[in-house]
Specification:
2 domains; single chain; about 50% helix; elongated; Tetrahydropterin Synthase, Chain A
């Protein structure tokens, strides 16, 4: 008992340091688990199209797919492999959409149609939902129609 009376201050400090270290260790382990989580959203690219019925406007948006978490790796690989086929079908469909669909702020019909296209090309239900972000309706005269990379003539070499 005499020993306890003599070192009670030091014992209290040691106990506080141990509790503090335990709390910091627990918090750091939780944060490291969170940073290793994989996202289930796969970006499928930016789309720009002009409807056939209205040549004065150009629409631009980004398309994302939410992949089934249990099939995340397979879904990401299949979406990457079929990206250009999905893009071609989507752009063909988007050019021919009903103008009422383009005015809908929730874009439910467009989203449903794009979901059908994705399911058709993947051949298995890997995607749970389609997201449309950065939706823009632009006048055609504001769009720069120059090619991003110029075509080089091979005959000049």
């Amino acid at each position: 008992m005499n020993l306890f009376r003599r070192y009670w201050g030091a014992s209290l400090i040691v106990m506080m340091v141990v509790v503090h270290a335990a709390v910091i260790g627990y918090v750091r382990s939780r944060v490291s688990r969170l940073s290793n989580l994989n996202t289930t959203v796969v970006e499928m690219g930016s789309y720009r199209f002009q409807p056939v019925d209205d040549l004065t406007k150009v629409y631009h948006f980004k398309l994302h797919a939410i992949v089934d978490p249990s099939k995340l790796r397979r879904g990401g690989e299949r979406l990457h492999m079929m990206r250009m086929q999905i893009r071609e079908s989507a752009e063909q469909t988007l050019r021919q959409v009903d103008p009422k669909w383009l005015e809908d702020p929730t874009q439910n019909q467009i989203r449903d149609r794009l979901m059908k296209i994705v399911h058709t090309h993947l051949e298995e239900p890997l995607v749970q939902r389609i997201l449309i972000t950065d939706w823009l309706e632009l006048p055609v005269h504001t769009i720069d129609l120059k090619l991003e990379t110029p075509v080089q003539k091979l005959a000049l070499q």
